[in-house]
Amino acid sequence: MLSRPLLALAGALALVVGTASAAPIATGEMLANSCAGCHGTNGRISNSAFMPLAGMPQEQFVRTMTDFREGRRSSTLMGHVAKGYSDEELKAMAAFFASVKP
Ligand code: HEC
Fold first, then answer.
1. Which of the residues 50, 76, 92, 99 has the least number of beta carbons within 10 Å of its own beta carbon?
2. Largest alpha-carbon pair distance within the chain?
3. CB-CB contact of 34 with 78 (8 Å)
4. How far apart, in whole angstroms, are the C-alpha atoms of residue 65 and residue 25?
5. Helical ranges in the chain per DSSP H
6. What distance in Å separates the CA atoms of residue 24 and residue 19, rounded to the nearest whole number?
7. pTM for the structure as a whole
8. pLDDT confidence of residue 101
9. What's the gap in Å between 51 CA and the centre of ligand 1?
10. How far apart are CA 58 and CA 61, in angstroms?
11. Among the listed residues 58, 59, 62, 41, the one whose alpha carbon sits nearest the alpha carbon of residue 50
């Protein structure tokens, strides 16, 4: 179930690595593509058991994802998802989602 988003992320990272002049890390928008399968494109989803991410305040996003990653917040899926991201990547995604209008 997680392989598709992880593959998408691997693809995004490969793109960045393949372009010498590009930024050294994937942008928040690229990283956020991995979340679209469940949370909607750009974190926009209207009808859902999955919460929208668009417009979530950056601090709340980083805290929630860190809690999932460290196991402080229980989850069915997000603990595994969150383990795949460094603090820098979470900050990049936070900035992206906060900039998207819900
Ligand atoms: C396979 C489906 C799936 C994918 C992919 C996924 N999520 Fe989630 N997400 C969930 C589920 C389900 C929950 C509810 C908590 C739980 O049970 O894990 C959740 C909850 C969350 C929450 C908490 C929302 C709130 O209002 O408290 C955040 C933040 C979040 N996800 C961020 C992300 C981000 C960022 C990504 C991409 C890196 C992502 N998710 C990818 C399924 C997914």
1. 76
2. 40
3. no
4. 19
5. 3-18, 28-32, 36-39, 58-70, 78-82, 87-99
6. 9
7. 0.77
8. 84
9. 7
10. 5
11. 41
Write the DSSP symbol of residue 54.
Answer: T
- The architecture of the domain spanning 3-99 is Orthogonal Bundle (1.10)
Length of the chain counted residue by residue: 102
Which of 1, 13, 38, 45 best tests ligand 1's pocket when mutated (most atoms within 8 Å of CB)? 38
Quote the pLDDT of residue 10: 57
Which pLDDT tens digits describe the chain residue by residue (102 residues)? 555 655 555 555 554 444 444 446 689 999 999 998 888 887 777 666 667 899 999 999 999 999 999 999 999 999 999 999 999 999 999 999 999 987
Neighbours of 93 (CB within 10 A): 27
